[in-house]
C-alpha cells in the first residue's frame, strides 16, 4: 500500500475517533426591532453636515489615477484634495447594491450581506497572540492556522476572517499568500482578503479564481477586503489601489475610517459620526467610478481616546450611541454596514475584557449591523489575539445569535398546557415538555461555571480564561479539515510556490 493510502487510512480512523460534529449556525436573520436614537431631523442634520464637509473642506485621495477619475466625473480637484458635489456623490452611492451574497467554498455557508441579516467574524490584524502558556508573543503561521480552525468550528461565526494574527515567521512580501491559503484550506466558510498592497489583493483574487472559477469570481463576491481610511479625510494610495482591485474583480469591500474619537475626529460623538459618514461615502462613491454596482459595506472602526493616556478605549456609552447612529445613517443610504464586536482594551481575559466586550457588542445587536468583525479573540485594543478569549467570545456569540432571533412562540401553547398538568405547588422538571425542550429553551454556556462552590473547588478552581484555553485545546484536538478537491488544493499550492519564487524575502 502506498504511503498516501496508509496516511489516508490513519486519517480516516482518527477522524472517526476524535471528530465532533461541526455545528454551523447560518447568518442571523434578526427578529429584533431596530433601536434608533436619531430623529429624522437629526439624521438629515448629520447627512447635510457630511455633504458640506465633502463639498467645502474636501477629502484627499492620494493617488493619481483616482484624482483623474474624480476630475473626469465632475468633482473639483486641487492637488490631492477632492471636493465632491453632493448630487454627484449621492448619484454614485446609489449604484452600490443594498444587499448581496457572500459566497463560501461550501455553498451551505454562503450568506447574504444586508437587510436584516447579521454575519459575524473573528478578530483581525493582531501582531501578538496570548497562547496556551499564557505568555504574550508574536504570532506565527501555526497560530494563524489554529485560529482559522477555531473560526471554522465556532458555530456563530459565519466568516473565517483573514489575518486573525500576523504570522511574523513568514516574510512580509509572501505573507499574504499563506494567510489566504490558511483561510481557504482550514475552513469552508467565507473569508477576508489582503489589502496591504494592490498586488497582494490581486494574488488573493487569483487564488479565489482557482477555487471558484474565474467567471464566477468576476460576478460574485467570494471574499471581503477591509479598506481603512486615515481620518481625518484621507484615503492613501495603498488603500485606493486595493479598493480598485476588489471593485474591478467583483469582490466586496468594507470601507472603514479608522476612528479614534477625540484624536482624529472631534471630541463629540455626533460630529465624529458626521466625519465618518463623509469619509466612508467618498470611498463608496469612488468604487462606483471603477465599477458601477461595486459591492460595498459602509464600515467603521470605533474607539475613543483616553484623554489621560492617549490609549484607545472600548465599550463606552458614547461608542454604543455612535453604533446606533451609524446604523441609522447606513439605512438612509440603503447600504450594508459593518461594525466591530467584542472589543476591549484589557491585556488579558479578565473582568474588564468581559464588561467592555459585552457593552460594545450589545448596542451593535440592537443597531442591526450586517457584518461584524472582531467577534472573537480581541484583546489589548487589537494588539493581541487570545486563544482563551476567542473561545469565550465565540460561545457568547452563540447566545447573542439566539437572542437576535427574538421571542419564540412555537411551543407556547404546549408549554402553557403543562401549567395545568403541574398545578399549584408542583414543579416542571419531569414534564414531557421540559424533557423535550430543556436543551434549547435557555442558553447554557459550557464555559461559564454555575456549579456549587464545592464542585468548583473539586474541579480545580478554574477561572473563565482557563476554561477557554481548555476548550481551545479540545477543539483543535478534534479538528478535521473540511474537504477540498485535491486538484484545487494542489493548484493553490503551486500558485503559492510560483509567486514565492517571484517575490523577495525582504520588504522594500
Automatic annotation (TrEMBL):
Key word Kinase present: no
GO molecular function, one term: methyltransferase activity
Classification via InterPro entries: MttB-like_sf, MTTB_MeTrfase
Keyword Glycoprotein: no
EC assignment: 2.1.1.-
Annotated GO biological process: methylation
EC category name: transferase
Pfam family, one: MTTB
Keywords: Methyltransferase, Transferase
Stated family: Belongs to the trimethylamine methyltransferase family.
Name the record gives this protein: Methyltransferase
Organism: Benzoatithermus flavus
Organism lineage: Bacteria, Pseudomonadati, Pseudomonadota, Alphaproteobacteria, Geminicoccales
Amino acid at each position: 500500500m502506498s504511503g498516501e493510502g496508509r496516511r489516508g487510512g490513519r486519517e480516516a480512523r482518527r477522524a472517526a475517533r476524535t471528530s465532533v460534529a461541526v455545528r454551523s449556525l447560518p447568518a442571523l436573520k434578526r427578529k429584533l426591532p431596530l433601536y434608533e436614537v436619531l430623529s429624522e431631523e437629526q439624521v438629515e442634520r448629520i447627512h447635510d453636515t457630511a455633504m458640506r464637509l465633502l463639498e467645502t473642506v474636501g477629502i484627499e485621495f492620494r493617488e493619481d489615477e483616482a484624482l483623474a477619475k474624480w476630475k473626469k466625473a465632475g468633482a473639483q480637484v486641487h492637488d490631492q484634495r477632492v471636493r465632491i458635489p453632493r448630487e454627484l456623490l449621492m448619484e454614485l452611492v446609489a449604484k452600490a447594491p443594498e444587499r448581496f451574497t457572500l459566497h463560501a467554498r461550501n455553498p451551505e455557508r454562503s450568506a447574504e450581506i444586508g437587510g436584516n441579516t447579521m454575519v459575524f467574524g473573528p478578530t483581525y490584524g493582531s501582531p501578538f497572540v496570548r497562547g496556551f502558556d499564557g505568555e504574550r508573543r508574536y504570532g506565527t503561521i501555526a497560530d494563524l492556522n489554529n485560529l482559522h480552525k477555531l473560526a471554522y468550528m465556532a458555530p456563530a461565526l459565519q466568516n473565517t476572517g483573514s489575518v486573525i494574527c500576523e504570522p511574523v515567521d513568514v516574510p512580509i512580501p509572501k505573507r499574504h499568500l499563506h494567510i489566504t491559503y490558511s483561510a481557504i484550506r482550514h475552513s469552508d466558510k467565507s473569508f477576508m482578503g489582503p489589502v496591504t498592497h494592490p498586488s497582494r489583493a490581486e494574488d488573493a483574487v487569483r487564488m479565489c479564481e482557482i477555487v471558484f472559477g474565474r467567471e464566477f469570481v468576476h460576478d460574485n463576491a467570494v471574499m471581503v477586503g477591509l479598506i481603512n481610511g486615515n481620518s481625518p479625510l484621507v484615503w492613501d494610495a495603498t488603500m485606493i489601489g486595493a479598493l480598485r482591485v476588489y471593485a474591478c474583480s467583483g469582490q466586496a469591500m468594507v470601507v472603514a475610517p479608522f476612528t479614534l474619537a477625540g484624536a482624529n475626529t472631534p471630541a463629540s460623538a455626533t460630529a465624529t459620526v458626521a466625519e465618518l459618514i463623509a469619509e466612508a461615502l467618498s470611498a463608496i462613491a469612488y468604487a462606483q467610478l471603477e465599477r458601477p454596482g461595486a459591492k460595498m459595506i459602509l464600515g467603521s472602526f470605533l474607539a475613543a481616546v483616553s484623554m489621560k493616556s492617549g490609549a484607545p478605549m472600548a465599550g463606552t456609552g458614547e461608542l454604543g450611541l455612535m453604533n446606533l447612529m451609524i446604523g441609522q445613517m447606513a439605512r438612509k443610504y440603503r447600504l450594508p454596514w459593518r461594525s466591530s464586536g467584542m472589543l476591549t482594551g484589557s491585556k488579558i481575559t479578565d473582568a474588564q475584557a468581559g464588561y467592555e466586550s459585552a457593552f460594545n457588542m450589545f448596542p451593535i445587536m440592537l443597531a442591526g449591523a450586517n457584518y461584524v468583525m472582531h467577534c472573537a479573540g480581541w484583546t489589548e485594543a487589537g494588539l493581541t489575539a487570545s486563544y482563551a478569549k476567542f473561545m469565550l467570545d465565540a460561545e457568547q456569540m452563540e447566545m447573542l445569535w439566539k437572542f437576535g432571533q427574538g421571542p419564540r412562540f412555537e411551543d407556547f401553547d404546549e408549554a402553557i398546557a403543562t401549567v395545568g398538568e403541574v398545578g399549584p405547588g408542583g414543579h416542571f422538571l419531569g414534564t414531557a415538555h421540559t424533557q423535550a425542550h430543556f436543551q434549547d429553551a435557555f442558553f447554557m454556556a459550557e464555559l461559564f461555571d454555575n456549579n456549587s462552590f464545592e464542585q468548583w473547588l473539586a474541579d480545580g478552581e478554574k477561572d473563565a480564561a482557563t476554561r477557554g484555553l481548555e476548550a481551545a485545546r479540545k477543539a483543535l484536538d478534534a479538528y478535521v479539515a473540511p474537504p477540498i478537491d485535491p486538484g484545487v488544493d494542489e493548484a493553490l499550492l503551486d500558485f503559492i510556490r510560483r509567486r514565492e519564487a517571484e517575490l523577495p524575502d525582504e520588504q522594500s
